[in-house]
Automatic annotation (TrEMBL):
Gene: LOC109480838
Name by which UniProt lists this protein: Armadillo repeat-containing protein 4-like
Pfam family, one: HEAT_2
ARM repeats (start-end): 15-40, 57-99, 182-224, 264-306
Coiled-coil residues: none
Length: 345
C-alpha cells in the first residue's frame, strides 16, 4: 500500500514507523524481515518518513543487514538505503556505519531487482566526495560501468544514472574514465537503445564525460554527434533535457558544432523551447547558444523561429537560461548585421 503517498503519510501519523524499525531486530525470521524491510523501503519514499527513520537509527540497522541475508531481504534493505541516501546527512551515516563496501560488493550480483536498487544507492552515496573516495578505491565505478553491458534496460539506465555523480565527484574523473578499456565506446553504443530511460541516463552520463576534452575527442571519434542528432526528434521531456545538455557539451570539440548542424539537430532543438518544462528550456538554450557560434546553424534556428521563443526567456528568473537565451540571440543578431554590411557596404 505504501507505493502511494497517502498511505505513507498515514503509516507515519498513526505511529507505524517505530514498530516497523523495531522488527529489524528480529532477523532470524526471514519472511518477517523481508516484509518489514519492504515496508520500510516503500515508506522511505517520503522524506518525512526518512526523518523519523533517522531518529530511530534505522540507517545503522539497515546497514547491518547488508550481509548474510537472502536476496528478498537484500533487495528491500538496499532499496530503503537508496531512498534514505537522497538526504545528505544519511549519506554520511551510511558511510560511518560501514555501509559503502558491502553496497559496492553487491554490484557484482546477478539479481536484476537488486542491481537496480544497489546502483541507485551507490549513485546517491557518490554525491558526497568522501563516499566517492571509498567507491573509487573499491573499483565501484568500473563495476557500475560493466553493468552497462547488462541485458536488462532498467539495470543499464540505473547504472548510467549512478555513473553521473561518480564522474562529478571523482578526484581525476577524466583519467578514471579513460582507464576503462572500451568504456567510452560502450557508453556511446547505448545511444542505439530502444528505451527512453536508458537514452536519458546515457545522455546525462555523456554530458558529464564530455567535460574532459580528451574523452570528448574519443567519443567524437566513436560517432557521438550523429547518434545524438538522431535522437533530437523525441517528445520525451526527460530525454530532451539530458540530450540537450549532452549536445551543448559535445559542441566544445573540433568541428562538432558544424557537424550537429549538418546532421539536422538544430531545428528539432528549437521545438524544445515550447515544452512546459523549465529545465528543458535551460538545457536547450545552452545547446542553441553553443550551436549558434556557427553561422549556418544561426540561419537554421532563425528560420525555425527561435528568436521569438528565446526573447521570452531572456526575462526568465533562471539566470543560466537568461544568459544562454541572450547569448544565442546576440550571435544571430551579429550574423545578421555582418550580412547587411556585406550586402550594403
Amino acid at each position: 500500500c505504501a507505493e502511494e503517498k497517502e498511505t505513507r503519510d498515514l503509516v507515519r501519523q498513526y505511529g507505524g514507523l517505530d514498530p516497523l524499525v523495531s522488527l529489524l531486530d528480529k532477523s532470524d525470521n526471514k519472511e518477517l524481515l523481508a516484509a518489514a524491510t519492504g515496508a520500510i523501503w516503500k515508506c522511505a519514499i517520503s522524506p518525512e518518513n526518512v526523518e523519523r527513520f533517522q531518529e530511530l537509527k534505522a540507517i545503522e540497522k539497515l546497514v547491518s543487514l547488508l550481509q548474510n541475508q537472502p536476496e528478498e531481504v537484500l533487495v528491500n534493505v538496499v532499496g530503503a538505503l537508496g531512498e534514505c541516501a537522497q538526504e545528505p546527512q544519511n549519506r554520511m551515516s551510511i558511510r560511518k556505519a560501514g555501509g559503502i563496501p558491502p553496497l559496492v560488493n553487491l554490484l557484482t550480483g546477478t539479481n536484476q531487482s537488486l542491481l537496480v536498487n544497489v546502483t541507485k544507492a551507490v549513485g546517491a552515496c557518490a554525491t558526497e566526495t568522501e563516499n566517492m573516495t571509498i567507491i573509487d578505491r573499491l573499483d565501484g565505478v568500473r563495476l557500475l560501468w560493466s553493468l552497462l553491458k547488462n541485458q536488462n534496460p532498467e539495470v543499464q539506465a540505473s547504472a548510467a544514472w549512478a555513473i553521473c555523480p561518480c564522474i562529478e565527484n571523482a578526484k581525476d574523473a577524466g583519467e578514471m574514465v579513460r582507464s576503462f578499456v572500451g568504456g567510452l565506446e560502450l557508453i556511446v553504443s547505448l545511444l542505439k537503445s530502444e528505451h527512453k530511460e536508458v537514452l536519458a541516463s546515457v545522455c546525462a552520463a555523456i554530458a558529464n564525460i564530455a567535460k574532459d576534452e580528451e574523452n570528448l575527442a574519443v567519443i567524437t571519434d566513436h560517432g557521438v554527434v550523429p547518434m545524438l542528432a538522431k535522437l533530437t526528434n523525441t517528445t520525451d521531456d526527460k530525454l530532451r533535457r539530458h540530450l540537450a545538455e549532452a549536445i551543448a557539451r559535445c559542441c566544445m570539440w573540433g568541428n562538432n558544432r558544424v557537424a550537429f548542424g549538418e546532421a539536422n539537430a538544430v531545428a528539432p532543438l528549437v521545438r524544445y523551447l515550447k515544452s512546459p518544462d523549465e529545465s528543458v528550456h535551460r538545457a536547450t538554450a545552452q545547446a542553441l547558444f553553443q550551436l549558434s557560434r556557427d553561422p549556418e546553424n544561426c540561419i537554421t534556428m532563425h528560420n525555425a523561429g527561435v528568436v521569438k521563443l528565446l526573447l521570452d526567456m531572456v526575462g526568465s528568473t533562471d539566470e543560466a537560461l537568461q544568459e544562454a537565451a541572450a547569448g544565442c540571440i546576440g550571435n544571430i543578431r551579429r550574423l545578421a548585421l555582418a550580412n547587411e554590411k556585406a550586402k550594403y557596404p
